[in-house]
Amino acid sequence: MKLIKDQKVLLSKIRVLQYVIFGIFLVIVCQLWNLQILRGPEYQQMAERNRIRTLDVPAPRGIIRDREGRSLVSNRPSFNIQVNLENLKGKDKAESERKEADMLLFLERELKLDRTSVRERLDRFGNGPLYKPITIKEDVSWADVGTVEAHLREHPELTVSQEPRRIYPLGAVGAHVLGYVGEISEEQVGSDEFPSSRRGDLIGKHGMERVYNSMLTGKDGFRQVVVNSLGRVAKTLQRQDAVPGKDVFLTLDLDLQMVAEKLLEGRMGTLVAMNPNNGEILAMVSRPAFDPNSFISRISSRNWQELISDPASPFMNRAIQATYSPGSIFKIIMAHAGLAEGAIDPSHWIFCNGEISMYDRVFHCSHRGGHGYVNVSAAIQSSCNIYFYLLGKQMGIDVISRYARSLGLGEKTGIDLPGERTGLVPDAQWKKKRYGNPWYAGETISVAIGQGALSATPLQILEAISALSVGGRLPQPHLLLNDPRYSASEALKPMAASYSSENRALLRDAMWRVVNSGGTGYLAAVGGMDVCGKTGTVQVIGKEKRTELNIPEGAREDLEDHAWFVGFAPKNSPEIAVVAFVEHGGTGGRSAAPMAAEVFREYFSKKGLIPPAVDTHIADIRPANPSPQP
Amino acid sequence: MIERRTWRQFDWKLLLAVLALCAIGVVFVHSATFGTEKNSEYLYKQLIWILAGLTIWAMVLFPDYHMLAEWALVFYVFLLGVLVAVLIFGHTVHGSKSWFHFGLFSVQPSELVKVAAIVVLARYFSDTRSLDQLTLQEIGIGALIVATPMLLILMQGDLGTTLTLLPVYAAMSFVSGLQRRHIVIALILFLVLAPLSWGLLKDYQKDRIRFFIHPEEEPYGSGYQALQAKIAIGSGQLYGKGLKQGSQSQLGFIPYRHTDFIFAVIAEEKGLFGVLIVLLLYLILFYLIFDGIHTARDRLGILICTGVVALLLIHVTLNIGMVIGLLPITGLPLPLISSGGSSMLANFLALGLVMNIKLRRYAN
After folding, report:
1. CA B316 to centroid of chain Cα atoms
2. Phi, psi (deg, nearest 5) at residue B165
3. Report for A300-309, B186-195, B250-259, B301-310: range of highest mean pLDDT
4. A224-237: average pLDDT
5. How many CB atoms lie within 10 A of CB A500?
6. What is the mean pLDDT of chain A?
7. pLDDT of A627 over the 50 cut
8. Number of structural domains in chain B
């Protein structure tokens, strides 16, 4: 029985252990009761306030560079002020409204933010997810950042966020090509052009920024954070770094671009330089221009309104969005058509006495006294109208329009820029459709010298003359460097009409004479380089009308003629083609040709083929021996 | 082999209680890992551990526990050797170097050594000279049996597991019989040594205790974890938010939610009702082990069962106490429920011993 007694002793002690267990479980149950029943609703609220938020880490856009890698558009850090709607929510409607009123007052007083514009933004984005902050002021100063940080306690709804911001370090240089960024519009969200976009995103609005938006746009990263009841980040749980956008290399040559920009300073017009062999745009300037830096904000500024209502249309890229009568430049295309059709040859001479009567109307030549005997070369060189009146009459509008179209006129060049215009190549069919009238033969005479309904963008003219300069094929103008889409074989669009090397030599020679042998474009001449080209002058107001209104030449700038020059160099193996167009610039020979000369000079001196330019202003170059202008 | 007479003593209620707790574990490990990549992996692993546990449990039933007690010394010494090996070659998980990796699974030998220590200690205390009072020498040798693995586990940096052996030793020596003056001396020693041991703690362990006392000092560290667990439990209220619906659990506010903090998940998703059922099952389990103590045929059986009760109780107490914010964070699993293999195997081993003792309540 010793064993039984022994066990009884042990078991009495076991009872103590049982009391301990009972006590422990009692304490546990009490605490559970306390947490889950007594304080349950309180913890319920705390659980609801607990949030894991996903914050965007914006990816910087790619850098836009010129063909040598120099940056044309880049990024800089900036700060935005944002509102977290979650922190504006009160217990009831009245409290929420009071909180919002407090905030608006604070923003008005301390940050000088207009009440209605803030309200507008809150309304616009208010139906998004509550946790997503709304940007109400962009690119704020350090002082503003300090103000917001200092009032963190009173205004937990306001936070400062960092964002890489676009900067256009060269200001207005190349603005029309580069474009600018802006906040995505309601219609653009999720559109085919911007498939994965969201409201509030910054996207390319124009130019390269827009066309290559998807390349430039990186992949935003995110940060998953725990936020406390004030909405402050308490802890980062997970993060994915942003992937920056790809850099975009353009065909532009910044050196050439800068020269072109300087040439057009204070003028209205455009200057484009292109490699005629492959369509690479080396420089493209349009004036007046705008500074993209001044309105890249999400919030539209007053500056923007001024710019879009400016009658000089600074946003218009005159190289592709403005169409003009080609004027005498068209004579090159006429000559090409005549030669290809066999309507003329170099032995075909006519006599120009300064005027000609056709279809019961007198048509004048550019030179009142007449040019005497001219063949096709001489007619181009001296820009004789009579020769081309006769050629036009001989070929008729349908042949002319066919050749014009075969050189790309009347259709978009397809350059990688948005908003390009087509221009117009008129013919009988077009007239019938448009006006319901038959084509009058007299209209052909105007078209033959590049007037009348005929119109083209400067880039179309450049493309056409480039095609004739190298022969055979139309280059595809483009701005993206090394893009397989523009690789040599596909870059050249076939030219519809036949173009023999004899005819090419003839046109090259004639255009060389225009510049180098007493022709209208002598101011385009560059010492040591065989520059070829053609001038054009487009009347804004006819001579008869001018006399009738009693406006002497030069009295009203806005009625001055438009000036054209298009050319290429060197003569036998063209590397660069340039078009210059100056609105109300006067004659092409006097104002447009010298600009082209400077561009050629820069191009070839950079290559070391000719000495660099002496820094003389264009205006200083005076014609030594004024000669007839078309 | 086991005679039919012995089989008749098989306690189905004990097995059912154990399986019920395991089932709750499976459900909530699944819920706690829901939406994570390894969701199904956790589920299958848990089921495999339970099956492995049951196998060990069944194997332990066959030999008489007296024979097991003889073997236990060898097992105990072997495990001490393994602990030394772990110190040299083991892997570090959450600051503790206490893991051995075997392919997909990793094992913590420190969990098993606790069971071995219980049996060795029971074996030693069952054979003392006096029947109701341990001599000082016996107390000392008993302490050595427990302190050796404790020291090795402490060297691994696993304070929680180390501390679990202390109450096991206390309970077993108390039941074996202690003189009142020895108890008083032990209490005084404990009160003096506890503050001194502060210096031995690692920084993160000190933090846990400090922030337990002053949670407002660091709201986003371990104090943050404790607060989030409390929010989870409290917001579960009476009925809970429903399985997989706990925002605190599912949004990742609760750390180690499928292991150490699984009780918070149960409390959030099934409310007070859910956790009361868990507590009730533990009480039933303890009751059935006490039943084994009362019917055990000898001192050895009584002491082994006592050790097992103490071991389970200290785990349940420290784990739930930590989760509900009454005790500092120690990182101990909830027996039979938390995801994890080593503790599952150790618990099944211990419960197999209890069943073995129950089966052999009558001497052959």
Report:
1. 7
2. -75, -25
3. B301-310
4. 65
5. 12
6. 84
7. no
8. 1
CATH code (residue A262): 3.40.710.10
Q: What DSSP line would sit under A475-537, residue for residue?
A: E--B-BTT-GGG-HHHHEEEPSS---HHHHHHHHHHHHHHHHSS-TTGGG-BTTB--EEEEEE
What pLDDT sits at residue A394?
92
State whether A219 and A283 are in the same domain: no
Q: A363-397 pLDDT, tens per residue?
A: 888 878 888 999 999 999 989 999 999 999 999 99
The least confident of A119-128, B19-28, B169-178 is A119-128
Spatial neighbors of A37 by CB under 8 A, at least 6 apart, are B237, B238, B272
Residue ending a domain, choose from A191, A220, A249: A249
Please list every residue in chain A whose beta carbon sits closer than 8 Å to the beta carbon of residue B220. Answer: 226, 234-235
> Among B220, B234, B253, whose Cβ lies nearest the Cβ of A40?
B234
Render pLDDT for B313-350 as a digit per residue (tens, 0 to 9): 999 999 999 999 888 888 889 999 998 888 999 999 99
Distances (CA, A) of B268 to B29, B230, B289, B318: 14, 9, 30, 19
* Domain boundary residue, one of A202, A229, A249: A249
Q: What is the pLDDT of residue A52?
A: 64
Of B252, B282, B324, the CB nearest to A32: B324
Interface test with B, best of A29, A43, A52, A229 (most B CBs within 10 A): A43
ipTM: 0.92
Residues of B in contact with A2 (CB under 8 A): 131
- Note whether residue A308 is domain-resident: no
Task: Name the closest residue on chain B to residue A234, using Cα atoms.
Answer: B220
Q: Quickly state the pLDDT bin for A448 (edges 50, 70, 90).
A: very high
Q: Are residues A245 and A258 in the same domain?
A: no
Q: Which residues of B147-170 are buried (b: 16+ CB within 10 A; e: fewer)?
A: bbbbebbbebbbbbbbbbbebbbb
Please tell me the distance from the alpha carbon of residue A404 to that of residue A408, in angstroms, as a whole number.
7
Q: How confident is the model at residue B253 (pLDDT cuts 50, 70, 90)?
A: confident
Residues A245 and A277 in one domain: no
Domain, as residue range, for A174: 52-249
The pLDDT-based confidence of B123 (bands split at 50, 70, 90) is very high
∠ CA B225-B228-B229, nearest 5°, is: 85
Q: Do B232 and A46 touch (CB under 8 A)?
A: no
pLDDT in tens, A36-48: 999 999 888 888 7
Same domain flag for A325 and A245: no
Residue B364 in any domain: the answer is no
User: Residue B312's domain spans which residues?
Assistant: 4-359
Task: Give the gap in angstroms from C-alpha A87 to the nearest C-alpha of chain B.
Answer: 20
Q: Is the peptide bond before B215 cis (omega within 30 degrees of 0)?
A: no
Question: What percentage of chain B exceeds 90 in pLDDT?
Answer: 46
B131–A29 CB contact, under 8 Å: no
Find the residue in B nearest to A33 (Cα): B272
The reply to whether B246 falls in a domain is: yes
In a domain, A8, yes or no: no
Q: Percentage helix, strand, coil, to 5, in chain A?
A: 40, 20, 40
Residues of chain A found within 8 Å of residue B286, distances taken between Cβ atoms:
21
CA distances from B258 to A374, B212, B261, B339 (A): 98, 22, 6, 6
Residues A368 and A224 in one domain: no
Specify burial of residue B289 (Cβ count, 10 A radius: 0-12, 13-18, 19+).
Answer: buried
Percent of chain A past pLDDT 90, that is, above it, reads 40
Can you tell me which residue has the tokens 């519809």?
A: A496
* Partner residue opposite A28 with nearest CB, options B238, B302, B324: B324
Closest CA–CA distance from residue A23 to any residue of chain B (Å) = 11
Facing residue for A52 by CB, picked from B220, B252, B302: B252
Residues composing chain A:
630
Out of A10, A25, A235, closest to residue B220 by CB: A235
